[in-house]
Amino acid sequence: MLDKTKRGWWQSAVFYQIYPKSFQDTNGDGIGDLKGIISRLDYLQKLGIDGIWLSPVCQSPQVDNGYDVSDYCAIDPMFGNMEDMETLIVEAKKRGISIIMDLVLNHCSDQHIWFKEALKGKDNPYHDYFIWRDGDGATPPNDMGSVFGGPAWTYVPQLGQWYFHQFVPQQPDLNWDNPKVRRGLYDFIRFWVDKGVEGFRLDVIDQIAKDPDQKITANGPRLHEFLRELSKEAFIEEGLVTVGEAWGANVERAKLYSNPDGSELSMVFQFEHMCLDQTTWQKWDFAPLPLVKLKDCYRRWQQELGSEGWNSLFMNNHDLPRIVSRWGDDQKYRVESAKMLATMLHGMQGTPYIYQGEELGMTNIKLPLEEYVDVEIHNLFRDRTTEGHSPESVMESIWKRGRDNARTPMQWTAGENAGFTTGKSWLKVNPNHTTINAEAALAEPDSVFYYYQKLIQIRKEYDVIRSGSFTLLCPEDEKIFAYTRDTDKAHLLVVCNFSGEEQSFEIPAAYANAKRLIANYPDSTDQLQPYEAMMLYYED
Ligand code: GLC
Ligand code: CA
User: Fold this and answer.
1) CA gap 339, 360 in Å, rounded
2) For ligand 1, is residue 105 a contact (CB within 6 Å)?
3) Looking at ligand 1, which atom is closest to the CA of residue 403?
4) Cα separation of the two ends of the chain
């Protein structure tokens, strides 16, 4: 087991993200809950993970599935109560699993006491916890738009003022320039550290230092100053792991965020690799994956961030479509391609995050519009069809990129509702649960599940994965992603065929007698099979 009191333990760890609403229901209301997570801890221990990033479980009106918090120190009754949370922390710890909570610090819910107070008047002490501009209600202070469609300003007639929100109007942005806001947030963090939480994922952290008058949202001028204060005041324990969501991060910024001196965060989620298969900055304008660009992107992050900071490794989360449907083949080669993608990622330097169901090779879903729940999907359909896009083309975008693809319930069994609930599930269960489910995976030695289990073991056993240098092979090849990792004495070769056709690839001579650490086909031939992947290893 890792010594989690030491700074940097997370460099050897693998995390698993749980989206609580969709993980496991225990009381038949169709919504996953904390007791459900507790009941599945043995499964997660078997997989071999060291920590759980738990998407928000705090009290919330759930306009954006918990990313609109109305009480940072209370558990939403939908998920259970504080006792359940305490039990989860203790039971997880017994199995060597840390709980990492999701902190939404950029904004809160309009039902939070701070905002309710702020609405009472301009001289209310909480008024300055938010961002206001005077106006007459006819034209917003500027033309900034919200991430989920519509303007970023909402008018409050009784105050004669607009407030700023980067997301939906029910998620008013907090005014980080006000020291009282920052102090208040640090108190919430300390509350959870005292409960035994061992880390945090910080929602849209690059957007806290906004300046709406300059139309600045991400990477505002005071961002790193705020982060250093946050770290000093709230992340006091050496062993806490902190990961910031930063869509706007480049390598240089990531070096600040993840400075090994611990002055800011442990690492960030950056999204450069997740934005290559689209034609505009909008994810809805999808395009085929340009593998050459993807490889160059990974190469840059691996080589340039290296040990001057720390990478996080992920391809999935609750905001992204399922990777096997996106970069793999979710039909004929579902199992092969799911394993291939995992091999590509888990051979790299950084801390891997597995999103629930990824270890089963779960896929996207295709639903009619009215069956989706995500506010972003409905706003998109409204806005794009108003702008003149055909409803058919908008639905294509939603099927490919909608966030509910990742949010369908976890597939535990082939039975009714995939064993997720005995009631009516809050979001449709993917009909393919009859073949893709945990029970079947656990009974099949060749399953995607056991492949992930093995990748996790390999990471723990072979230090070259944590510390080796990265070299990209055949950078111009459009079908094969191959790289090596090297220390003075240890050498690892990772080869992945990103296509559904055979490819030729010459294994470098040095690896002629290397050990096959893992592979998704039983034997190698002189051709790479469709979606074939392997890791070869030798020591000098
Ligand atoms: C982050 C979350 C996303 C949420 C948004 C607003 O991007 O991952 O789910 O909607 O922030 O909080
Ligand atoms: Ca429930």
Assistant:
1) 10
2) no
3) 9
4) 28
